[in-house]
Amino acid sequence: MAPLTQETNPAPAELNGVGPDVAGQLLVTAGDNPDRLRSEAAFAMPCGVAPLPASSGRTHRHRLNRGGDRAANAALYRIVLCRLHWDQHTKQYMERQTREGLSKKEIIRCLKRFVARAIYHVLTTTNATAAAPSHLATAA
């Protein structure tokens, strides 16, 4: 899996908490057409991390979209777990949000959206500046 993800797009694997299997899944979710990823929200929707309002009465909160690619959602969850275990900034974020009264589930929801945003930027900037894939270069 590692050689395939490095050949396709090595940038996601360079992020903290992203291994070859997770990078491969996110590349599959992004698809072969990077133009369909118009915005961060357009990438978050198929990953299942787009926030949807789930408010009732005086409670104002969000939940994650239950639709989308479950494997991509699981990949983002694995990234968040790795970052919670190893990344000092993520640990500090968790402590700060816990002090503010958010539950662990809500904090993970926010972190998954943050990771999806970072992955989107990596995918779109590297795809926009990368050369054409070899199968397209031979067709010309």
From TrEMBL:
InterPro entries: Transpos_IS110 (IPR047650), Transposase_20 (IPR003346). GO terms for biological process: DNA transposition. It holds the Pfam family Transposase_20. GO terms for molecular function: DNA binding; transposase activity. Residues 14-94 form the Transposase IS116/IS110/IS902 C-terminal domain. PANTHER family: TRANSPOSASE FOR INSERTION SEQUENCE ELEMENT IS1111A, TRANSPOSASE FOR INSERTION SEQUENCE ELEMENT IS1547. This is Transposase IS116/IS110/IS902 C-terminal domain-containing protein.
